[in-house]
Specification:
The chain is an alpha+beta fold. The protein has helices at residues 7-21, 150-155, 200-205, 302-307, 358-372, 374-377, 395-399, 401-410, 434-445, 458-466, and strands at residues 26-28, 30-32, 48-63, 66-73, 81-85, 89-96, 107-108, 128-134, 139-144, 159-165, 175-184, 194-196, 210-213, 226-229, 233-242, 247-252, 256-260, 268-271, 273-276, 280-287, 292-298, 310-316, 412-418, 421-427. The protein has three domains: 23-171, Cupredoxins -  blue copper proteins (Immunoglobulin-like, Sandwich), CATH 2.60.40; 176-316, Sandwich (Immunoglobulin-like), CATH 2.60.40.420; 358-466, Cytochrome Bc1 Complex, Chain D, domain 2. It has ten helices and 24 strands. Strands 1, 3, 4, 6, 8 and 12 form a six-stranded mixed beta sheet that branches.
Amino acid sequence: MKHKLCIGSLYFLAVLLPLQSAELPVEKAKMTSPPHVPPAIERNHPAKVIVDMEVVEKVMRLADGVDYMFWTFGGTVPGTFIRVREGDQVEFNLHNHPDNKLPHNIDLHAVTGQGGGAEGSFTAPGHSSKFSFKALNPGLFVYHCATQPVGMHIANGMYGLILVEPLNGLSKVDKEFYVFQSEFYTEGAHGEEGLQPFSMDKAIKEQADYVVFNGSVGALTGDNALPVSKGETVRLFVGNGGPNLASSFHVIGEIFDWVYPEAGMMANRNVQTTTVPPGGAAMVEFTTDVPGTFIIVDHAIFRAFNKGALGMIKVTGEEDHEIYSGKILDSQYKTMVNTPDKPLLLPKTNTPQKELTMDESIKAGKVTYQATCMACHQANGLGIPGVFPPLAKSDFLFEDIDRAIGIVIHGKQGPIKVNGKDYNQVMTPQNITNEEISNVMNFILNSWGNEHPGKIDPAKVKQIRAK
């Protein structure tokens, strides 16, 4: 019986079989540090790709004033981005720096084999291990250390991404970036300065002090914002190292044209927020239609604004007011009459209309603070970093008490500096009586380590209000 060969069979016989029978061409892997991504692979045939990865344990910045002993792949958190092609034979060399204190290995989710390579890569300090694997499945895959205790090695920064391009490659875009979310658990509270050790207790309880992109607070903000021009197509390779928390990945002011959830080959269109599980990845693509600063967040929103999961994409170019106008008008909606006898809009504090002792005033002021001030300045008086300034041990507050009372009465807008840090927000006039202002000021000036010898009385507030 005669058999017909399909086109795929002819391709296999003509192209793949000779490459399998002959030695594959050898090349070094295309690898980059975050947020950069290696260029697309141009060849149309498999190769033997050599990866050299060094594990380095070193102290780096976690947040302003906060250092951490990171365990890294390639000296960065996340680790070096690896780019290979479906069908490649990958020779992986893992080197453990001799100054390191611990053995490490690597589990690549792209590997079909025991432990994803962990079994073949367990490496003591000062040693190297070699193993190989064939890149069978296209996609974007997380890699991480899998040495016991696995959670601790991951929590200390040992993770990254490996892209296995499909045979026909990915669609061409103008810009590609590497964004990786993870959390850190420190013995000290969020923002506590100095070298912070890892807290196993917090990690087990999943009480993250920091949730960040690319290894530290602010790694993708300010001068580190991802640069894009209006009209460019952008692809983000997004990973999540966890070790515990799923990411609700979102870019404020953008809609993802395409999302490859879990970094597989199936695509979804016009997505606002996509879930990236711990140990998972996603590819998102969009076109920048207007200029501006677009904020990258984990939309579990307190992680973004209180724990660090915030980045920026800076888009430059000409405005397009048809797509987005910006503010057109700012006009008065209703006039606020801020007078002592005006009824409160917020819950009454039942302030007695008599002269209070200092202790009574502080007690009444705490009630007013909880009703009007705590949402922004927080129960501990520390505010919200970068957003609302602290009242606890605030040099700005104690520099001019009368000015502070005036701000409570009349509000303030614009930049200020508190304890050496810049803030630029709006504080609206507080619709509370002279008595309540005097009480809340007495509470603030004598709480959280603050000490003020004098008593603020309603007559002083009335005098400042009259100005």
